[in-house]
Amino acid sequence: MTNVRFQLWILVAGLIIAGLKAYLYFITKSNAIFSDALESLVNISANTITLYSLYLSAKPRDKTHPYGHGKIEFLAAGFEGSLLFVAGMITIFKSIGDYFSQSELELTGFSLLGILGLGFFNYVLGILSEKKGSQTNSPALISGGKHLKGDGYTTLAILISLVLVYFTNWLWLDPIIGAFAGIFILYQGFKVVKSSILDIMGTADETILEKIIAHLQEKRKDPWIDIHNLRILKFGSEYHVDAHVTLPYYYSNLLVHAEMKDMHEVINQHFNSEVELFIHPDPCEPFCCHYCEMNNCTVRKQAFEGQIKWTLDNVLKNEKHGAKFIF
Q1: For the CA atoms of 318, 321, 325, 327, what is the dihedral angle to 10 degrees?
Q2: Rounded to the nearest 5°, which phi and psi values hold at 235?
Q3: Which of 13, 28, 129, 169 is 20 to 30 A from 207 (CA-CA)?
Q4: Cβ of 34: how many Cβ atoms within 10 Å?
Q5: Count of H helices and E strands in the chain?
Q6: Can you tell me the mean pLDDT for 156-165?
């Protein structure tokens, strides 16, 4: 199932959930349920935009978008976070107003069971969306999944509180619950917006970088004398990797191309999606000999002393590894 089709099913399910939550609010007049229903309405808007962003990001590259259209997913995630922020503010202000009016609630066992079922269903949708997003490296599906799971947690907390209201008849507790739910929604929105901004700015993901560097270290070949100036950019579900690789200076263009192809295949083993890799080959220099593992090299100037282990600290620098090395 493609991401677009999967998101379409998420949108349809969201419409049903939002409609049922709105119905439960109208029959109970609960501020807590109002906050939950409002968050589901945000889900519908966000899911619609996510659906469109997935459609755009799936379009092939063209001359005006040489890196593809994937960054639209980051904008969609940011818009979803902004909507959450607005929903949280609306919920807080409404709860404060209703706290002083003390409107009557009409909670029933049926309404409480309904909230339980809808919260559980939302959480399951979140798990499925996050799993699909991880499989396809889609930030829009991952952020949407986290939001749905958060919605499920919010619903559970609201349910527990409403059960307390149901048995104690403490009506003043409902708007307080709604206000805290609004604060939680604000927090969720802030996290989504922050993540979106970092992705748009191309902020380095050190976790991914460390995993790739460790993978290259494990699969390294003798001709790959040195790797430096490694950079990774994410465009939606696609990655773009730049790197400088030091190879024996006497290698022909054919051999250099073969080594770059091998490195491309090694890096792609780490990702679930295709990676565009731009490698700049650097010729080795005499100071490289003491950590070069090439056997039977006829132009070696120094004896091999030890391998430099590739780490986050030395691979990201824009310079060949020098005299200092790690065994």
Answers
A1: 90
A2: -120, 90
A3: 129
A4: 26
A5: 9, 3
A6: 80
The pLDDT of residue 248: 92
Going along the chain from its start, the domains and CATH numbers come out as: 3-200 (1.20.1510.10), 206-315 (3.30.70.1350)
Q: Is the pTM of this model over 0.70?
A: no
Q: Dump the DSSP string for 272-327.
A: SS-EEEEEEEEE--GGGGGG---TT-TT--S----PPPP-HHHHSSSS---S----
* pLDDT tens per residue across span 20-39: 888 888 888 887 787 778 77
- Tokens linked to 54: 């997935």
> Using the 8-state DSSP alphabet, how is residue 65 labeled?
B
Kindly state the DSSP code that residue 59 receives in the 8-state scheme: S
Question: Please, are residues 74 and 87 in contact by the beta-carbon 8 Å criterion?
Answer: no
Distances (CA, A) of 37 to 51, 193, 245, 310: 21, 21, 54, 51
Residues 6+ apart with CB under 8 A from 325: 290, 291, 305, 306, 307, 308
The predicted-structure confidence for 297-306, as pLDDT tens digits, reads as follows 888 888 888 8
Look at residue 238 and tell me whether its pLDDT is greater than 70.
Answer: no
Positive/negative CA dihedral, 17, 19, 25, 27: negative
Question: CB atoms < 10 A from the CB of 113, how many?
Answer: 11
**What pLDDT score does 39 carry?**
73
> Percentage of the chain surpassing pLDDT 70?
79
d(CA 113, CA 181): 19
Distance CA 27, CA 107 (A): 8
Listed in sequence order, the DSSP H helices in 61-172 are 72-101, 109-136, 139-168
